[in-house]
């Protein structure tokens, strides 16, 4: 990985997008096992239907993990200073998520050069599922 430099990074620059395979039941089962989040709404169709949903749906933290991957493919994880999101929609089975980000600010804190990024996930229909921001030291 070649970390971008502060001097070469400009406000408006886009991170290389991260396009993911469609969400499947296997994806949800593997994430449940890896994360320890076995909430039935994400893995048990009968439970999901009793809760008023048509089917199970992805863990919000799965999409946040995808955004973390977007960030760490752009810069080393040791350079991440903050990372937060707001969930704006449900990621359903079959949704193909694309993670994107762009530089919105350049600044310095205690002599450390940093950039603020706006990040988001969208499904194949262009619907935003998560919005957030991150600060990365460059």
From TrEMBL:
Q: Which domain of life is it from?
A: Bacteria
| Signal peptide (from-to) | none
Q: Which CDD domains match?
A: SAV4209_like
InterPro entries xrefs: HotDog_dom_sf, MaoC-like_dom
Q: Where is the MaoC-like domain?
A: 21-116
State the name under which the record lists this protein.
Acyl dehydratase
Which organism's genome codes for this protein?
Pseudorhodoferax soli
